[in-house]
Design a protein that fits this description.
Blueprint: H1 13-27, H2 39-46, H3 50-62, E1 66-69, E2 73-76, H4 81-106, H5 110-124
Antiparallel strand pairs: 1-2
Helix pairs in contact: 1-3, 2-3
Length: 126
């Protein structure tokens, strides 16, 4: 398991960890039932606080990506495709909301914004 922490990023370290682990779980790099490094071991490897690592693991557990077995550690949960889809839709809504706000500031009409999105989607499908 490889995690890259960027101290220069505006994203908090715990969020960087949880985002990368989530991505690895969704992509199948980390398989359901696979054990993750202990909170202390990961903190030591990344040279960060145990509190930061615990927060990342807690966030992933609350989102259903991990489960904890007392005395054994944290493990990758079975993929709940509906849950993953819902989380991705929420993320998409946030990005679209930001795009809509920026379009409003720039004076881009809803129709122009829709055309821009259509062009982008067509380019992606090529």
């Amino acid at each position: 398991m490889e995690l890259i922490i960027r101290n220069t990023a505006n994203q908090p370290i715990y969020d960087q960890i949880s985002a990368q682990l989530k991505s690895q779980i969704i992509s199948g790099t980390l398989q359901p039932g696979e054990a993750l490094p202990s909170i202390r071991a990961l903190a030591k490897d990344l040279k960060i606080s145990v509190i930061t690592t615990k927060r990342a693991y807690d966030e992933l557990e609350s989102e259903g990506f991990l489960y904890t077995v007392a005395g054994k550690g944290c493990f990758v949960a079975e993929k709940n495709l509906d849950l993953i889809r819902e989380q991705r839709l929420k993320e998409l809504e946030e990005h679209l909301s930001a795009a809509a706000e920026l379009a409003k500031i720039c004076g881009v009409s809803p129709r122009e914004l829709q055309e821009m999105l259509t062009v982008l989607l067509e380019e992606e499908s090529l």
